[in-house]
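Subject: Sanity check before I submit

Could someone independently write out the structure tokens for this chain? I want to compare against mine line by line before I put it in a report. The sequence has 390 residues.
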Amino acid sequence: MLPAIEVAHKHGYHVITVDYLPGNIAHRYSDEYHNVSILAKDKEKVLQLAQELQIDGILSYAVDPGVVAAAYVAEQMHLPFTCSYEAACIMQDKSRFRKFLTEHGFNVPNAKGYTDVEEALKDVDYFHWPVIVKPVDSAGSKGVTRVDDPKDLKAAIAHALDESHNGHFIIEDFLELQGYQSSADCFSVDGELVYADYSDQLFDKDAANPYTPSIEIWPSSMPQVHQDYLTSEIQRLLRLLHCGTGLYNIESRVCKNGKPYIMEVSPRAGGNRIAELQRIGTGIDLIEAEVCKAVGDEVNGITMPHYDGFYVNYIVHSNQDGIFVASSIDEEFQKQHVIEAEIRVNPGDHVDTFKGANNAIGTLFLHFDTWEELEQAITNQKDWLKVVVK
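---
Independent answer below. Compare away.
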């Protein structure tokens, strides 16, 4: 949220943050804070507050739980938003989104949503194992489990429900990757996809949750033919959902069956500071465009992205619970490759093992001139980065 607040202040906007957590760091940088839940079930409370404050715009920048409420407020108050409330509800619910994709002929894994655990356990023959189990309304890979044996399904469902806000979960066939999954921020103007981007997401196989991205690389190594197909399909999706102007975080992948899949589309910025690194790598500021759109200002200068070299978002994390002692980067490596280093915790703070994006210790923005330099750095991470947790 902080990059959006910074841009808003640059334009002279009065920033109001809303959340039920008084300790949310965004409140330190906003001009005004109100203690109201932003969950979808509390959308009427957010609307009442917005009407009382007579706001000029609303967004849920990189904050997944607030998207539906923000879309609802925007629609009720006739404020700019990326999409309608109904479209936001479809995109923010993994089960509804899979159903929508299926009904409109997109490539989609075999999937089914549930609220009843026993009903799900009776459906084991519906799926092609292994499967993935996840909450329909979470982000950051929270509550996600791969299940190879039906006997482990009940425990995976319990884990998903622990991370769910609405008590719904989804089971879907596990799709074997060809290459890397992509997660990148994209932008449309009047429903036309003017900025489509793809990345390579890498995962730490030793992490407590091996489905939480630990490294993201731009540009993507995905073959151009698959990128072109996905761009065309994303454009078709935006038209079907009657989307307008705004930012999306889009996850996609190519699988070993040779098919590209749109996995998730959310009308918000992605986590892990994706739009910030894309701004550094391309010079195109999706953050400013999103903030300006939210208050009805003109959006300019958004074109398809191009990168000089390779840009990396490295998620600093720990594979154990404990007390953070220190982190350090090799001096020569830092000079050559580190654009920015952000460590969010202080020595003496407790850190959790890497189960989701919210467990990150910090982020490093890196740049490499060649793929060979990048590959060597990823292969030898322990040579240039030290993280001490006891």
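---
OP: Matches mine. For the report I'm noting this point. The CA atoms of residues 70 and 110 lie 30 Å apart.
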